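The record is given unchanged here:
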Amino acid sequence: MDDSVFDLGRQNSSIDAKIVAGLERLGEVFRILLWQQSRETGLSPIQIQILLFLAFHDPAKCKIGYLAAEFNLTKPTISDAVKVLAQKELVARIVDPTDSRSHSLQLTPAGQQVVDQTSGFAGVLSQLVGQLNGEHKTLLYESLFALIYGLHQRGLITVQRMCKTCLHYRYDGQIHYCGLLKIPLEADLLRLDCPEHAAL
């Protein structure tokens, strides 16, 4: 109990505890914003997240198994969420022509309308980040990047399409480099979700 970051005595004397408590509050903001969208659309937060994922990722990733790993949920949980989305005609199942047992998910026009309505749910955070100066943004991004990578290394974030988990990524101790794009990467060019990601 003494080492809890929620203990105010520890929190007020430890910058580490203050940062963790701050991250917890940011997580709460995302939950609140998603629940607001949930009430407006009649969809659950995970159903909204699935629609957003389908809208912005290639079809090879838009499968039940991949979504389960992406959101760290079981396949039956994702299947149930997708079943409701299909019943509401927000997604369609597209059968793989090379394997009739496999299918990917695709937004319908109605699903795209929901994405258009909900994709800006984190806009208030974007506005606040936009007000930071360039140096603060870079430092914040580098810190978040390191935290996300560390959580991935510990198995708490299962799917990552970030530079550090990519076959094309190189780091010589000073310079980050992308072998695919053949360019050095400044900190603000490192990607958290790269469409060209090749898993190690």
Summary: The chain has eight helices and five strands. The two ends are 39 Å apart (CA to CA). The longest strand covers residues 99-107. The mean pLDDT is 90.
